[in-house]
């Protein structure tokens, strides 16, 4: 069973954290979920890592502010910049020493990039490997929802307008009955050719836990972020990037641009898969994760710098 606890942040927000594996493991893998989801989206990766690492890895998931079992937050802090700061706080609390691998899906990947941008010395001292799953370093540049550019512009306009309304709804959550009615739309937006009914239920449950403020509030920051220059400075790290060729939110050009600035990155494009690769193609994600992990474990522990060094 995972250890469950909370990390308190300076602004009063409390993050729900789950950790599996020994605290003195050689490497800690931090798994960051996507927008409107929560840490449960990684359950297949947590199971795979903790079942095969022989105690060499500690696996940590947490719910971002305003998501899952973490508390809601002031609207001005619904930004990727704040999520990058939150990641630093989680690292200093949960894994204050030793090497870490950062694994991010969608908004979680963008959070990693923001942490690297805002806290480069801390990032360099702690981070030994990276895995990017269905994410982007270019905001909504490539997001056309699998539709014509004209229709995509209309959808984006409606989406951003609606996000502004939702952001003002505070800690309220979407009614579960409404979300059940919207399941066909959620399935179309997030999944590819195949979708396990249990996965769509989990995603719907996660969206039901996200505050309307977080659903709406993070939209502007996600659309505007551009961090390819930040990634270019990380080319020395073992890394992997994965994307589904049916991903309507972060299509293959998003992963390709990440791989272009990280030339040592292993790029995997999954045919028929959508945005939820950790659920749709768990074997591919698990393989990429264990591949990066193996490369990190094979290296001398040169990244085992105490937290705070150089910050």
From TrEMBL:
InterPro entries: AB_hydrolase_1, AB_hydrolase_fold, AB_hydrolase_sf, Epox_hydrolase-like. GO terms for molecular function: catalytic activity. Gene3D superfamilies: alpha/beta hydrolase. Pfam families: Abhydrolase_6. One of its GO terms (cellular component) is membrane. Residues 30-286 form the AB hydrolase-1 domain. It comes from the Bacteria. This is Pimeloyl-ACP methyl ester carboxylesterase.
């Amino acid at each position: 069973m995972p250890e469950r606890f909370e990390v308190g942040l300076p602004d009063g927000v409390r993050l729900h954290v789950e950790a599996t594996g020994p605290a003195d493991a050689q490497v800690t893998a931090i798994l960051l979920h996507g927008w409107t989801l929560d840490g449960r989206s990684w359950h297949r990766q947590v199971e795979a890592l903790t079942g095969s690492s022989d105690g060499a890895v500690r696996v940590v998931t947490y719910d971002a502010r305003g998501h899952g079992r973490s508390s809601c937050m002031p609207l001005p802090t619904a930004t990727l910049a704040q999520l990058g700061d939150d990641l630093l706080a989680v690292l200093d609390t949960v894994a204050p020493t030793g090497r870490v691998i950062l694994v991010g899906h969608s908004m979680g990947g963008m959070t990693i990039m923001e942490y690297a941008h805002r806290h480069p010395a801390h990032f360099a001292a702690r981070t030994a490997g990276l895995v990017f799953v269905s994410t982007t370093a270019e905001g909504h540049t490539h997001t056309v929802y699998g539709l014509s550019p004209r229709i995509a512009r209309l959808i984006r306009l409606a989406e951003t307008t609606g996000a502004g309304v939702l952001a003002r709804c505070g800690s309220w959550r979407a009614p579960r009955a409404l979300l059940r009615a919207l399941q066909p739309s959620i399935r179309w937006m997030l999944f590819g050719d195949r979708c396990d009914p249990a996965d769509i239920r989990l995603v719907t449950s996660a969206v039901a836990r996200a505050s309307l403020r977080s659903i709406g509030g993070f939209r502007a920051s996600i659309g505007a972020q551009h961090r390819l220059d930040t990634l270019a400075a990380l080319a020395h790290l073992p890394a992997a990037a994965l994307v589904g060729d049916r991903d309507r939110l972060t299509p293959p050009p998003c992963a390709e641009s990440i791989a272009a600035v990280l030339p040592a990155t292993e790029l995997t494009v999954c045919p028929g898969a959508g945005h939820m690769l950790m659920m749709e193609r768990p074997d591919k994600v698990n393989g990429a994760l264990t591949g990066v992990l193996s490369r990190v474990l094979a290296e001398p522990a040169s990244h085992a710098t105490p937290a705070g060094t150089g910050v």
